[in-house]
Amino acid sequence: MSSLKSVNDFLAGPLMTAVGGVFLVLAFALPRMGYPEWECLAWVCVVICGIPLLYLSVWRLIYNKGIAKISSALLITIAMIAALLIGDLFAAGEVAFIMEIGAILEDMTVKRARKGLRELMSLVPDTARRIVDGKEETVPVGDIRVGDVVRVVPGETIPVDGVVLKGETTIDQSVMTGESLPVDKSPGDEVYSGTVNRFGSVDIEASKVGEDSSLQRLIRLVEDSDKNQAPTQRIADRWASWLVPIAALIAVAAYLLTGDVVRAVTVLVVFCPCALILATPTAIMAAIGQATKHGVIVKSGAALEAMGSVDTIAFDKTGTLTLGNLAVSDVVSFSEMSGDEVLRIAASAESRSEHPIGKAITAEASRLGLALEGCEGFAATAGKGIEAEMGGRRYRIGTPAFVFGSEEPRGKASDVISHMKSEGKAVVAIASEGRVLGAISLSDVLRPEAPAVISELNGMGVKTVLLTGDHKEAAEHFAAAAGVSEVLSDLLPEDKLENVRKVGTKVCMVGDGVNDAPALKAADVGVAMGAMGSDIAVEAADIALMTDGIGRMPYLKWLSNATVRTIRTAITISMCINAVAVSASVAGILNPTTGALVHNAGSCFVVLLAALLYDRKYPGDRKRRSSLDDGDPEAPVVA
């Protein structure tokens, strides 16, 4: 059986199909040049293209269930055999050749790489530091059991899910939640496997290990979602359940009415859904080619078709709707100092810090050209803040809880800090010798094109949703700034996976991180930020945006809609041609060879219609260029 399949796969390949096509052309041309004996060359095409066709139709008859046994391959096989029985070799070869061309074009649109899962697994560390009787030992991660105490030092990946027993630190858990800000952890807080310990050393008690850990669960979600992705059934096969009986009935009726078997065979030949078979793959290939020119990589024709029926687009926040970079958004002084002076003092102290917030403050001071001064007595408290001495004064800079202790800020300071927190921003307070000097807030940066993109999608009748692991306040603030209509926040990967199936009838998910991979797989269409997103997200998605931004999403939706319309138009026209050709066959106007040429002309028309799609211009590009000519593009929005 395996050897038969190998022979079939070889014959069905592009090279052998091309060879069959050459011989088919010769079998048509040479007899018309005065060499009728060379019509037998069509046998080469019949064998090369007919065997795979026969193999496919028989395989489906044996292994498919119910009505799926009847496919377009069966109808074309019947027509091919009927043409052979009456001695029309060219007609037999032609229908088999067109079928193979359609199959090859379709195969070219659905091949996909499968490397992302291995990269996801590589995030799991091989060893862990287990604490036994106060002593540290290095053991394989597989030896860790629930209840064991594991020590994680700065820079290491956390090997298991657990609860912090001792120590304070800051954890980069974007791999799980997509949060742009590292999260401070202290005793009693939960941590997840696969996340990265940025600063302090902590001891954690393992609560979930091995296959139960968050990262392994994430891997399983990707695997399970992949298995649940049923392959799209070709439209010709969906219609074949009634095309085959109708073709057979008309052919039998034609024979009974006229007594001419040639007319019956001609009906079978012209009824072959060759144009129908070519309609989908050719349009999709043209659309994929155009998308590639615009920096959009479409991995499968099924995804492009599905995108055309999408009514809801769900966005991740960090790195997708936003740039994923911390930036200073507000500097407020609570004293006689100016805002620049508050920023300069904070940046001078933070210049000794490795924390992302400290780096963002220093970068903002550098951007404004503020001169920093040296500091002494620098001391950092992991997850809280820093202290330093400058100009004979001691400064404390960090979280409000660290700066103020048990004393809550009052008056303007209280109102401003509360407002900053309500917007989901990270707040850094600055105080000296018991006096509050100011506050700095930091946040992610909204992509400059986001409001226009969301507005354009809404104008197409598409609902937009924000699915994020970030906090409610930050999520709602960015959603409002972008114009997104619905927000779901504080979501872990499994929560995103569950919600992406509920937010709409046909849903497209757009994301960039590892934590988005299950939702990208589960959605009807997954779109990854290919230029700066994780390799795992790109592999999990059906479509990748290779430009650094979401600006191509309206174009992608437009192209998908245009592709679906082109396919439907091609199918309608091809069916009309078939109806006319069948009538002409019954009337005796066409014979198998001329009938084959007529429906081949229909196939050529379908290919031409698809080719026009390749060069079709996106109307939104003209509008965007016009708006840019009228003024400067929007600056990035810092929330």
| Span of the ends, CA to CA | 63 Å
As a whole number of angstroms, the C-alpha radius of gyration is 33 Å
Main β sheet profile = 7 strands, mixed
> Are there runs of 5+ residues with pLDDT below 50, and where?
109-117, 228-233, 626-639
Keywords:
single chain; 639 residues; alpha+beta; Calcium-transporting ATPase, cytoplasmic transduction domain A; Rossmann fold; 4 domains; six-stranded antiparallel sheet; 25 helices; 18% strand; elongated; disordered C terminus
Explain this structure to me?
With 639 residues, the protein is an alpha+beta fold. It contains 25 helices and 24 strands. A 7-stranded mixed beta sheet has the order 10-23-22-21-11-19-20, sandwiched between helices. A hairpin with a 2-residue loop joins strand 14 and strand 15. Helix 10 runs antiparallel to helix 23. The chain is elongated and about 110 Å long.
